[in-house]
């Protein structure tokens, strides 16, 4: 059994949240002046955020993976407020509460992986009360990870374990929409579970997805998912992804402490690297006035589990990327 597998068995990286884990050393960190920490969290209290989403008003929602919590950060605030919760997540056993998305009405959706069958699946948190309701059929998803809506109200869910994408029609039940070898993990992380398709984002009837173990960014047209194209192969294991109006994909790359921009033609540019990035896992564009060119992200901050020196800690950060993001559906 490898060292990484032993760590997984002990629960040390069970909160990796199906994120991008690599077995290669990280390049030396370089300070980046345009990364601003908006909110810092208390890692000693299990406050490790994995997912992020913003509503039309500019409210920032984060998933605190090990705790099964969704927290809300109102515009112009740096104080998180409790918003929603899912019972049945055990730190050290489950990946927990992962990716987030928001529907046209402002309800928040969260992906949960738990060994408890009553908790596993995709949950909707009421926009007013935060009350949690599991979507039908989602309990069968292996590792529900990334979430994205299209303009028709369909919710797409990456299943990192099965190498599949599920679709949940508005008001309907979840079913497998696409299963393909390009979406599967290849076991290269040696974690005892494959970590394939992960992050997902929607733009112009096309889904952009990342594959953690295969290091790839893929483009999938909704009308013909069989016409999937590989956009780029990255020097690192990608996690969450967001899209700008020009079709560039912004990808969080965990242990390298990087955020990279991938053009539609496949060229890759690092836009942020090093402190204060600390195992970045998810990214999303700002939605309120004056923030459309701002990329929001979360630092999951678990690099110490892989022998890296302590980083800046878990946080919500922002980067001005100079290009507006795709408006939320």
Give keywords:
329 residues; mainly beta; Neuraminidase; four-stranded antiparallel beta sheet; globular
Topology, pairings included?
Blueprint: H1 3-10, E1 35-40, E2 49-54, E3 60-64, E4 69-73, E5 81-85, E6 96-102, E7 108-113, E8 121-125, E9 132-134, E10 144-149, E11 155-159, E12 164-168, E13 175-179, E14 197-203, E15 206-211, E16 216-221, E17 229-233, E18 238-243, E19 249-253, E20 258-262, E21 268-273, E22 280-285, E23 294-299, E24 315-320
Antiparallel strand pairs: 1-24, 2-3, 3-4, 4-5, 6-7, 7-8, 8-9, 10-11, 11-12, 12-13, 14-15, 15-16, 16-17, 18-19, 19-20, 20-21, 22-23, 23-24
Distance between the termini: 45 Å
Order of helices and strands: HEEEEEEEEEEEEEEEEEEEEEEEE
Mean pLDDT: 89
Instruction: Quote the beta fraction.
Output: 35-45%
| Number of helices in the DSSP assignment | 1
Strand order of the largest sheet: 1-24-23-22
Low-confidence stretches: 1-33
| CATH topological fold name | Neuraminidase
Q: How helix-rich are the residues, as a percent range? A: under 10%
Helix-and-strand structural type: mainly beta
Which outline best applies?
globular
What is the CATH first-level class name?
A: Mainly Beta
CATH superfamily: TolB, C-terminal domain
Largest sheet entry = 4 strands, antiparallel
What is the CATH architecture term? 6 Propeller
Number of self-contained structural domains: 1
Count of beta strands? 24
Rg from alpha-carbon coordinates: 17 Å
């Amino acid at each position: 059994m490898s060292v990484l597998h032993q760590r997984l068995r002990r629960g040390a990286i069970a909160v990796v949240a199906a994120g991008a884990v690599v077995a290669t050393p990280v390049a030396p960190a370089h300070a980046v002046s345009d990364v601003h920490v908006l909110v810092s969290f208390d890692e000693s209290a299990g406050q490790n955020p994995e997912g992020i989403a913003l509503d039309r008003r500019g409210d920032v929602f984060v998933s605190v993976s090990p705790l099964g919590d969704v927290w809300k950060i109102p515009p112009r605030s740096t104080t998180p407020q409790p918003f929603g919760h899912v019972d049945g997540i055990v730190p050290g056993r489950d990946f927990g509460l992962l990716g987030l998305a928001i529907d046209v009405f402002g309800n928040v959706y969260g992906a949960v992986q738990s060994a408890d069958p009553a908790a596993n699946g995709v949950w909707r948190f009421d926009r007013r009360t935060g009350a949690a309701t599991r979507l039908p059929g989602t309990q069968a998803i292996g590792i529900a990870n990334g979430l994205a809506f299209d303009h028709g109200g369909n919710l797409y869910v990456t299943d990192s374990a099965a190498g599949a994408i599920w679709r949940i029609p508005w008001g309907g039940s979840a079913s497998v929409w696409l299963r393909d070898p390009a979406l599967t993990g290849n076991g290269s992380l040696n974690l005892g579970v494959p970590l394939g398709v992960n992050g997902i984002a929607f733009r112009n009837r096309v889904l952009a997805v990342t594959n953690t173990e295969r290091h790839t960014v893929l483009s999938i047209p909704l009308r013909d998912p069989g016409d999937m194209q590989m956009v780029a192969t990255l020097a690192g294991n990608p996690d969450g992804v967001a899209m700008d109006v020009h079709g560039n994909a912004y990808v969080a790359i965990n242990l390298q402490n990087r955020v990279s921009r991938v053009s539609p033609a496949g060229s890759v540019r690092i836009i942020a690297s090093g402190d204060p990035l600390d195992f970045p896992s998810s990214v999303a564009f700002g939605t309120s006035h004056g923030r459309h060119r701002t990329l929001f992200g979360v630092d999951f901050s678990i690099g110490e589990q892989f022998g890296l020196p302590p980083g800046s800690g878990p946080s919500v950060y922002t980067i001005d990327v100079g290009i507006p993001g795709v408006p939320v559906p």
